[in-house]
Design a protein that fits this description.
The protein is an alpha+beta fold. The protein contains five helices and three strands; from the N terminus they run H-H-E-H-H-E-E-H.
Length: 102
């Protein structure tokens, strides 16, 4: 279907997209997502090291990313391992980063 023939997005779809972009519009959340997109699943401690941020700040932002359905978490022993929820998240983050830095 050509772009001109696509249906007009609903208010709900627009609001959901705005919410996604607002979630991405945070430097620490973007760093965390980029690390997961580029390196795959990482523990909370590894993400803290990659981001160079306080543990409490990383935990708070990871909770926000989970609530936004951008990352998932699994417990492995005493560690929480985080990964992107699906491949779309990696594309969105990488494309936004590339566009902004060109």
């Amino acid at each position: 279907m050509s772009p001109a023939r696509r249906k007009r997005p609903t208010r709900r779809e627009v609001d959901a997209t705005v919410g996604l972009l607002a979630t991405l519009a945070n430097p620490l959340r973007l760093q965390l997502l980029l690390a997961l997109a580029r390196e795959g699943a990482l523990s909370a401690g590894e993400l803290q090291t990659r981001a160079g941020a306080e543990q409490s700040a990383v935990s708070h932002q990871l909770a926000t990313l989970r609530k936004a359905r951008l990352v998932s978490a699994e417990r492995e022993g005493r560690h929480m391992i985080y990964s992107l929820l699906d491949h779309h998240v990696a594309h969105i983050v990488e494309d936004a980063f590339k566009h902004a830095t060109e």
